[in-house]
TrEMBL record:
Pfam hit, one: Phosphodiest
InterPro entries attached to this UniProt entry: Alkaline_phosphatase_core_sf, Phosphodiest/P_Trfase
Protein name per the record: Alkaline phosphatase family protein
Species this chain originates from: Umezawaea endophytica
């Protein structure tokens, strides 16, 4: 079990450390960042530390950078990690506790900001207002108030999304369509003022990892392309600029014999009110008084294929950070189930597309938790 190192080496520490290099008041550098006037943070979705090490020959530029592994945070999932970067807070404070979680008596999908499991797409932005689901000021707000020009460069369809509003508000959004304008828009942002922080995001490596599996030929080709993107940004940086590269999580390849289908296993369903999370990490919301029986049933079915923790046990272990805010506490399942090895709890009926992914993430293994923090010298 790789416990996130909040406060000394987790994604929530990255942007505060980078902003400390820009002399933003109240920011502390805990990861060792050189001083700069312009900083670009490039987030490569799905590039775990172990994957980068295993395929360094495919990404020679990234592999050449000064770097070390840090922890993603828990769950090791995109929405949670982006919220950690955008707020500078651990999961228990920003409250995006997974890919899906209960809020306002509904199961919120934090990437689509829709009612997860509903037969039709239901936009929850009007009712689960992103600024209320995640009410803390973003770290971009704080940097802007300190006179830093903050910019977000990300796929155009993410502009105004629920997650962008919850985690990345406080900065102008530049939507991009492909890798070419990702590089161009990032460089334009870095040239836009004397003190700049630019957050840039690339999603496609993660997508190919889900569909084909990490380390496959399509994934490796995409890794080589994003390596060229990072090298292109670095080669064109202003002289007083720094490029930092991170990922939001790693990834594992599932094995069929370790996969359990919740939708066809009555023992797992008994006493469960809602099932959140994703295949590698589940929030199990139980009926009143049923938690003990549900825990026993899940232990019987899963055995040693998962860590099974009661909500308070998971909090006491520090999985969600040093503290959990009052409004965040009920979003955590009565049981937290984190897969070990290559196991998963899928839902082939309710989550048919998600359940079909070969590559998955979210849990506490080193393959999922450890992500690179790379800096240009």
């Amino acid at each position: 079990m790789e416990i996130p190192r909040y406060g000394s080496g987790a994604l929530a520490d990255v942007v505060p450390s980078l902003l400390a290099s820009l002399d933003v008041p109240g920011m502390t550098d805990v990861i060792g960042v050189p001083a700069a006037r312009r900083v670009c943070l490039l987030l490569i979705d799905g590039l775990g530390w172990e994957l980068l090490r295993a395929h360094a020959d495919t990404a020679p530029f990234l592999a050449s950078l000064s770097g070390k592994p840090i922890t993603a945070g828990f769950p090791s999932s995109t929405a949670t990690s982006i919220a950690a970067l955008g707020t500078g807070l651990p999961t228990g404070e920003h409250g995006v506790v997974g890919y899906t979680f209960e809020t306002n008596s509904l199961l919120l999908n934090a990437l689509g900001w829709n009612h997860h499991g509903a037969p039709h797409h239901t936009d929850l932005r009007p009712t689960a207002v992103p600024e209320e689901v995640q009410p803390r000021p973003t770290i971009f707000d704080r940097a802007t108030a300190a006179g830093v020009a903050v910019r977000v460069v990300a796929p155009y369809q993410q502009e105004g999304s629920g997650l962008s509003r919850a985690a990345l508000r406080g900065a102008p959004f530049q939507g991009v369509f492909a890798m070419g304008d990702l590089v161009s828009a990032t460089l334009d942002a870095l040239r836009s003022a004397d003190r700049v922080f630019c957050y840039a995001y690339h999603a496609d490596l993660d997508a190919l990892g889900h569909f084909y599996g990490p380390g496959t030929e399509p994934w490796l080709l995409q890794l080589s392309f994003i390596d060229h993107v990072a090298a292109s940004i670095a080669a064109r940086l202003p002289t007083d600029a720094l490029l930092a590269v991170v990922a939001d999580h790693g990834m594992v390849t599932l094995t069929e014999e370790d996969t359990v289908d919740y939708d066809t296993e009555p023992l797992l369903q008994a006493g469960v009110r809602l099932l959140g999370g994703e295949p590698r990490v589940r929030h199990v919301y139980t009926e009143p008084g049923a938690t003990d029986d549900v825990l026993a049933a899940w232990q019987q079915v899963l055995g040693d294929r998962a860590w099974l923790l009661r909500r308070d046990e998971a909090i006491a272990l520090g999985l969600f950070g040093p503290s959990v805010a009052t409004h965040v506490y009920p979003r955590i399942g009565n049981l937290v189930v984190a897969a070990r090895g290559t196991a998963a709890v899928v839902r082939t009926t309710v989550e048919a597309r998600l359940s079909g992914f070969i590559g998955q993430h979210g849990s506490l293994t080193s393959a999922e938790q450890l992500v690179p923090l790379l800096l240009t010298s």
